[in-house]
Design a protein that fits this description.
Structural class: alpha+beta
Number of helices: 10
Low-confidence stretches: none
Shape: elongated
Strand order of the largest sheet: 6-7-8-3-9-10
Distance between the termini: 25 Å
Strand content: 25-35%
Helix content: 25-40%
């Protein structure tokens, strides 16, 4: 296995379409790195440049100690798993898994050993004589992964491999891939638009937008300390709530004013926002950090925000409650399933101010990150 390094890599398609811009990232040996972002953000193009399926416009790609910009895909010592499995329909599972090794003229005994070892790891030993049409989606994906495993490459590349599976099977395969990574101790670059996959699989997450890296950090650091409003809004289900208001003085401190509501900032937030006094900012708060005042961790709190319940979505262990806040600002919160709320009910909502973020209105930068938070965020 090996480390993978991309240094100032860019990709410009004909017509001036900038797919990837100045992408720099060092991926450690045996690290599981996840590239995540909306469609068109450049994540798959980046992966394809590492694989050699797309040429770089500029920059350098290293796999191990070797610069591979001009090395053909077949000689880069990587294995790629695609979204559509890319299995040969006329071949059995065994022959699909063995095909790459056969092309490289491996001895038959070695091919047989590797295929059967991979099949055992993936639990598909009883499928070796079937053809792809006789397999379920999950079984086909295991075969595609097995075909990569037998190569024993320096790095594995996954391009949205679970997108074609149903929700239950995606959860199962996520766990399977994580277990597989621990067992094989491989270097993995994984592309997805699914934030749940990014959060559960990655040692580090690379959030991308418009071809550029927005943030690189461990999953919880990206979630808790987003560097800008895009990252904050992209990760999390339901998405983070955003509201525009003004920073105003309040009894020797500072408050966030939104319509008639005045929400006192903590000392930490006030210190971060002191340069924005009298200016508009965007406040961000996650649904789980908005609660029913007087219940649970929100008992005996200040900063009550009057709101009206608009929609209630019961999910079993919890409920998603859509609110109309001050000036009819939409808010979404997560409540315990046993908290009684009804549509059109008035509700005193409370914001956990220790979990609130403030963003610059112009740049989207998170202005509420202290130096120690910035260290966690990268």
């Amino acid at each position: 296995m090996a480390n993978v390094a991309l240094e100032h890599v860019s990709k410009m398609f004909p017509g001036g379409v900038q797919a990837v811009e100045d992408f720099t990232l060092d991926i450690e040996n045996q690290e599981f790195i996840v590239l995540v972002g909306p469609s068109g953000c450049g994540k798959s193009t980046t992966l394809r440049m590492v694989a050699g399926l797309e040429e770089t416009t500029s920059g350098t790609i290293r796999i191990g100690d070797r610069v591979v910009n001009d090395v053909p895909p077949k000689d880069r010592d990587i294995a790629m798993v695609f979204q559509n499995y890319a299995l040969y329909p006329h071949m059995t599972v065994y022959k699909n898994m063995a095909f790459g090794l056969k092309l490289r003229r491996f001895p038959k005994a070695e091919i047989d050993k590797r295929v059967k070892e991979a099949a055992k790891i993936l639990g598909i030993e009883d499928l070796l004589e079937r053809k792809p049409k006789a397999l379920s989606g999950g079984q086909r994906q295991r075969v595609a992964v097995g075909r990569a495993i037998v190569r024993q490459p320096q790095a594995f590349l996954f391009d949205e491999p679970l997108s074609n599976l149903d929700a239950k099977l995606r959860v199962e395969m996520r766990a399977e891939l994580k277990r597989l990574h621990r067992r094989l101790q491989t270097t993995v670059i994984y592309v997805t638009h699914d934030q749940a996959e990014a959060m559960t699989l990655g040692d580090r997450v690379v959030v991308m937008k418009d071809g550029r890296i927005q943030q690189v950090a461990p999953p919880l650091a990206v979630y808790d300390y987003p560097v800008n409003q895009f990252v904050a809004g992209f990760l999390g289900t339901p998405a983070m709530n955003f509201a525009t208001g003004r920073i105003a003085p309040l009894n020797g401190g500072l408050a966030f004013e939104m319509g008639p509501a005045r929400i006192r900032l903590t000392e930490r937030l006030a210190a971060c926002a002191k340069g924005y006094a009298g200016k508009d900012v965007t406040m961000g708060v996650r649904p789980e950090d908005i609660g029913y005042a007087g219940t649970g961790k929100f008992a005996g709190v200040e900063n009550i925000m009057p709101a009206t319940v608009r929609v209630v979505e019961p999910l079993g262990d919890e409920q998603i409650v859509h609110l109309a806040g001050p000036a009819d600002a939409p808010l979404v919160c997560k409540l315990d399933a046993h908290v009684k709320v009804d549509v059109d009910q008035r509700m005193d909502a409370h914001l956990d101010m220790n979990r609130v973020h403030l963003f610059d209105r112009q740049t989207g930068e998170n202005i509420s990150l202290e130096p120690e938070h910035v260290a966690h965020a990268s």
